[in-house]
Structure prediction request, 204 residues.
Amino acid sequence: MPDNQPHQPYVLILFYSRTGHTATLARQIARGVARVEGIEARLRAVPAVSPDTEASLPAVPDEGAPWATREDLANCAGLAIGSPTRFGNMAAPLKYFLDGTGDLWVSGALAGRPAGAFTSTGSLHGGQESTLITMMIPLLHHGMVLCGVPYTEKALSATTAGGTPYGPSHWAGTDTANAVSDHEKAICQTFGERLARLALKLSD
Prediction:
């Protein structure tokens, strides 16, 4: 039977996480989205990439968020993309997923929708801001409206770990032992709430 019920708009929180820190940020962003009535968060991950040309991962991950589809991206009202830092840039799995969205770019499917980025790094000065800025470049190519974190969020000025005006971030430590701090959580939640409110306004 066809589903004729209207679907609630959603913010797609699309991420790659290897050690779990970026996934934790994604869940905190989802909490921020949940503060806003009339819109929901949709958590989706991307699988690792490998030189192996044969599919070797299950169609559904054993744990964590489901794998993202292009339909998840095409139909979102807002978008947050997240990745650990790799030499000051996003990790290959997220880049690989975004590289396959050329038809959405051609059609302008994402133009006018709000979007932003979040990241986790091993070292405190390991490229958080450069990663966030370079992650914004494909969002701009898709015609999306960039969303950051304003300094009205007090945690942005108080944090001694991650957190930038370009988007949420986390300092995991070189041994990945640092838990996400209360300030980092607050920044994530403010970002998620702001993205959700922008998504509702821009959809009007």
